[in-house]
Design brief:
GO terms for molecular function: phosphorelay response regulator activity; transcription cis-regulatory region binding. Keywords: DNA-binding, Phosphoprotein, Transcription, Transcription regulation, Two-component regulatory system. InterPro entries: CheY-like_superfamily, Sig_transdc_resp-reg_receiver, WalR-like. It comes from Geovibrio thiophilus. The chain is an alpha/beta fold. It has a single domain, classed as Rossmann fold (3-Layer(aba) Sandwich). Helix content is 44%, strand content 20%. It contains five helices and five strands, in the order βαβαβαβαβα. It has a five-stranded parallel sheet with strand order 2-1-3-4-5, sandwiched between helices. Helix 2 packs parallel to helix 3. The radius of gyration is 13 Å and the shape is globular. The protein starts with a strand and ends with a helix.
Length: 120
Amino acid sequence: MKKKILIVEDNRYEREGLASLLSEQNYDVDTVENGRFALDKLHETEFDLVVTDLMMPATDGLQFLHKLRSNGSSMPVLVITGNENMQNMLSAYQLGALDVIYKPFQFSELMDVIKRVIPV
């Protein structure tokens, strides 16, 4: 059975691009555009990993992580961000993020982290 990944990214092109590349790597991928929709999606479907952006409208990545952990979830979450703010990075780690990867990144860098957590 394919491992399931949820991508949370407000930029449509980045969201669709990541979904396409991860699908090619034999992952079952679903996407949403912000943390609020991600929380809704997680109530409907089980995922093996969430890949989330930090800066998004409505519910950003840190708010999403906080709400996820407040609900008792230990779901693995990988954060991607274009904002190299040290406080945001530390907050993401404190909320249980597996790793923080800065945009622009190499797809191989993302895959190295994903394969450590959920090998195909």
